[in-house]
């Protein structure tokens, strides 16, 4: 999911301990998350990636100090744009917003080269992490800002984008969404323009991302893409039958083409949650006061945070999914397709996070749980970064051809 100005989760800190041995291994691994919505935080007034924040206070989940504590070396930092009207004006506004969000990511790197480095190829990640810096790949969640000009993809590629998702919560000009409000397909997969976009992605060496798109879009991508497909933040239908998750047959088809599913930690996709209508109504009213891309003052943000905290106090979420729910999806995917085709894309700062894993400080718990489940250090290394980097390397090799 894409980020809002304030994420959708309340905080309850997890207390599960990780052994010193498991923590030492976790810190040794190259760890990448394939879906960080943290760029939305970069444009918040008074917020800095350099400072340690508290998920219980401002609801953000990723910053430099917490990445160090949680042993997160980096990942794919998303340019997310919500779905707007399929009009010339809608496309223009989305394009401008996406370019500015991409510049925010580049400015974060430029402002602190001692701690962040832009990564453009699969081989860049390891040396960046070895130098103690955070790895910054760039991605696009929702290709809507490209409008009907597929050639604009090269502009974003030149900026550094190496992973692109086709759709988001609703159908757009390129593809059907898995969650369109109409509940009816528009194209029955990729549109003709979406197929042209895929060709350009393959030509430029960009990884196709099928998360948020319909199963039929995934079918088209697996049939047409000349390089493997990634699901940057998804789950398993066999564990919870939600449109955002994929079934075992699609998992196997994805793996057969060299693809990878990166496991999501977005609560409402992990299991059914008891309705909380009062909270939902209050949250909808709060979000109605915010506009994506609109500049807000520090004072306004402080007021919004106070309102959000009051909602948490009045209408607490008493049925939040847990770390065990997250691991159930991961362990199922591993059982179906094995450790060569599973990774991690928790949707931090875009709604991800569960009881027991509230922010990136808690990431060592994943390593500990995988080891406890019997997976080897080599397996865990693939899950944390080896698999997603292999897919990126394949996209680069496809470009070379």
Task: Describe the SSE topology.
Layout: H1 20-28, E1 32-36, H2 39-42, H3 55-58, H4 64-70, E2 74-80, H5 88-111, E3 116-118, H6 125-130, E4 134-141, H7 152-159, E5 161-165, H8 192-204, E6 207-209, H9 215-224, E7 230-236, E8 245-246, H10 248-256, E9 260-263, H11 277-287, H12 298-314, H13 323-337, E10 342-344, H14 364-372, H15 377-400
Parallel strand pairs: 1-2, 2-4, 3-4, 4-5, 5-6, 7-8, 7-9, 9-10
Helix pairs in contact: 1-14, 11-12
Give the overall form: globular
Q: What string gives the helices and strands in order?
A: HEHHHEHEHEHEHEHEEHEHHHEHH
Extended strand count = 10
CATH level 1 name of the largest domain: Alpha Beta
Report the structural category: alpha/beta
Uncertain runs are 1-15
Distance between the termini: 33 Å
Outline of the structure:
The protein is an alpha/beta fold. It is 42% helix and 12% strand. Its EC number is 3.4.13.19.
Structural description of this entry:
The chain has 401 residues and is of the alpha/beta class. It has two domains: 20-273 and 320-400, TIM Barrel; 276-319. It has 15 helices and ten strands. The chain has helices at residues 20-28, 39-42, 55-58, 64-70, 88-111, 125-130, 152-159, 192-204, 215-224, 248-256, 277-287, 298-314, 323-337, 364-372, 377-400; strands at 32-36, 74-80, 116-118, 134-141, 161-165, 207-209, 230-236, 245-246, 260-263, 342-344. Strands 1, 2, 3, 4, 5 and 6 form a six-stranded parallel sheet that branches. Strands 8-7-9-10 form a four-stranded parallel sheet. Helix 7 (152-159) links the parallel strand 4 and strand 5. The protein is globular and about 50 Å long. The model is unreliable at 1-15 (pLDDT under 50).
